[in-house]
Design a protein that fits this description.
This protein has 297 residues and is of the alpha/beta class. 39% of the residues lie in helices and 16% in strands. The strands form three sheets. The protein has a six-stranded parallel beta sheet. Helix 2 links the parallel strand 2 and strand 3. It is globular. 44% of the residues are buried. Bound molecules: NADPH dihydro-nicotinamide-adenine-dinucleotide phosphate (NDP). NADPH dihydro-nicotinamide-adenine-dinucleotide phosphate (NDP) binds next to helix 10.
């Protein structure tokens, strides 16, 4: 019999989006401020096109301004940098997001670091990375921020908990570890060179999986009662119809649900929170730039 509470990211994200919408209304009414998000897509990667469409739709639904820049795959780095400069200087744009990955001829780090750190809605700029790791106020990457919000909702204070983050990417693993450390967890970051990953995972009160390998974290790697956050999104062939695909996480959900205290499903866990946090970040940026108090979100 399954024991774990399923943390429903769809419902959680819906509640965040409702608070975002209220915040936008009060900023418009009280300060005449309309938060604006610019999304830049270079090329025609199908997955990126889907993400960008969803971001635009949800930005508009929240009552915010959406600025869409779809550029040809052959766009030069210089032209992209000049668009970023234009957006940095545009007072109606408060958040800038450059959809990754960029084509090979463009240096992604250079482009991200050209964004005004105050408008860095994704929190990937080196200055914001430094701010997060030194405990200063900055912009925080959306996916780990969403994970943290769900963890705090589930557990209340995280202080003193053993947290294991599997994965050390700049967009998920490292910022997740920094956020958990900020909450006074005892944090271990695991990666492809980690010895005895299973044993390490078994020590975790909070286990965050951000690897990109389908169901690699087994049920018996989970400490009884632990809270498991599965960031992974992996497409695998359906059992009955191998030509079709289904999404699974990095955790063997069917086995882990028997042992964990709470767990996020895939799909419908962390995924929906990422865009909700992007909208939230854009409002945070707008308030800081306009020097007005941030409405509760
Ligand atoms: P990366 O490929 O950038 O990083 C993967 C990490 O996993 C690396 O640090 C790697 O270690 C580690 N790793 C790989 N193999 C193993 C192994 N056998 N044992 C332990 N660690 C291992 O991935 P991302 O962080 O970008 O994404 C991770 C997953 O999260 C993907 O499935 C992605 O699709 C998903 N994702 C979901 C989002 C959402 O909105 N829900 C947003 C972003 C990502 P090493 O550094 O040593 O190579």
């Amino acid at each position: 019999m399954a024991n774990a509470t399923i943390i429903d990211g769809k419902i959680f994200a819906e509640a965040v989006r409702a608070r975002v919408k209220d915040a936008v209304t009060s900023l418009k009414n009280d300060h005449g401020l309309i938060p604006g998000l610019a999304v830049v897509l270079v090329g025609e990667d199908p997955a990126s096109q889907v993400y960008v469409r969803n971001k635009k739709k949800q930005t508009v639904e929240a009552g915010m301004a959406s600025f869409d820049h779809q550029l040809d795959v052959a766009t030069s780095e210089a032209d992209l940098l000049s668009l970023i400069e234009q957006l940095n200087n545009d007072p109606s744009v408060h958040g800038i997001l450059v959809q990754l990955p960029l084509p090979d001829h463009i240096d992604s780090e250079k482009v991200i670091d050209a964004i005004d750190p105050k408008k860095d809605a994704d929190g990937f700029h080196t200055i914001n990375v430094g701010r997060l790791s030194t405990g200063k106020k900055g912009m925080v990457p959306c996916t780990p921020l969403g994970c943290l919000m769900m963890l705090k909702d589930q557990l209340g204070s995280l202080a003193g908990k053993n947290a294991v983050v599997v994965g050390r990417s700049n967009i998920v693993g490292k910022p997740m570890a920094a956020l958990l450390l900020r909450e006074s967890c005892t944090v271990t970051v695991a990666h492809s060179r980690t010895h005895d990953l299973a044993g390490l995972c078994r020590s975790a009160d909070i286990l965050v999986a951000a690897v990109g390998l389908p169901e690699m974290i087994k049920g018996d790697w989970v400490k009884p009662g632990a809270t498991v956050i599965d960031v992974g999104i992996n497409r695998i062939p359906k059992r009955e119809e191998p030509k079709k695909f289904r999404l699974v996480g990095d955790v063997d959900f069917a086995a882990a649900i028997e042992i964990a205290g709470a767990i996020t499903p895939v799909p419908g866990g962390v995924g929906p929170m990422t865009i909700a946090c992007l909208l939230r970040n854009t409002i945070t940026a707008a308030c800081r730039i306009a020097e007005v108090d941030e409405p509760p979100m």
